[in-house]
Task: inverse folding
């Protein structure tokens, strides 16, 4: 099954989400996302004033596939990958920064923001999120089926196939 | 057959190539290319001091496919396409500017260049190349087989199948 390559849980997730909210507030960006290289949205924040965003899942998928193509271009020039990517449209732009091998912080802005500021704050946030990921990777809550599980499965199987021993 | 979507001939081609050479000299870029959206290199220039470039055909193919993905991202935000794209690596960066629907000027630079200057001069050059394309599209030299052609083909066919009338 295709699953996100990176998960933050509990307090670490809340902290990272707060960092994104701060980024949006401080930089006057429209949206800020952290996506993984498979194209999953790991977390996102939106400015109160920003229009309803397009499908963030589609956006993340396109950005992630685009990033892989970018890496191929960088490698032609002997680079590991590009550290930064700016896509500038008439009104909307995106700034993407490499966050190790796992995740990409993506900031979407319009002409009410200053690109220099967007870059600076996104980089700062990326460094903090990187720290969080390094500290908390492997924090996944232990998977436990709970005490009642075994009995419930027995009942379900019994109802489907008849009580064992009946046949 | 897959063919470049855009051709400049004769004097117009020379003029465009000179514009690229000027761009490289003025901006201290390593290489400057004009590629079409199918990934063909239409023309290119290289600074005297720049290292031998990687395969420009591969580069153009990657940039063109990347550009289409970029356009999809831009359209999510209601933009026609991104006007500018900056990919910044550790040492090498690329600046790509949209040139109408047909071609992309691509400038590859390293840390000996100033990005602001690269952008400014690439934009200027793009505008001049756009003018050339608009003026000279459809200038393809008339295709003519020459006077000797018919006789040569006759001889060739004769040597392959025997002189007609012999059989």
Result:
């Amino acid at each position: 099954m295709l699953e996100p390559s990176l998960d933050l849980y509990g307090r670490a997730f809340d902290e990272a989400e707060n960092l994104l909210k701060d980024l949006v507030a401080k930089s006057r960006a429209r949206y800020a996302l952290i996506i993984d290289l498979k194209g999953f949205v790991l977390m996102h924040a939106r400015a109160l004033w920003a229009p309803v965003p397009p499908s963030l899942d589609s956006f993340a998928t396109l950005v992630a596939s685009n990033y892989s193509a970018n890496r191929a271009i960088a490698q032609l020039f002997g680079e590991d990958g590009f550290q930064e990517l700016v896509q500038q449209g008439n009104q909307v732009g995106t700034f993407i920064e490499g966050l190790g091998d796992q995740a990409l912080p993506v900031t979407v802005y319009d002409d009410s923001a200053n690109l220099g500021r967007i870059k600076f704050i996104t980089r700062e946030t990326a460094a903090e999120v990187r720290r969080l990921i390094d500290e908390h990777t492997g924090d996944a809550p232990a998977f436990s089926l709970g005490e009642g599980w075994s009995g419930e499965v027995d009942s379900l199987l019994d109802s489907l196939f008849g009580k064992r021993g009946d046949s």
About this structure: Chain A is about 45% helix and 15% strand.
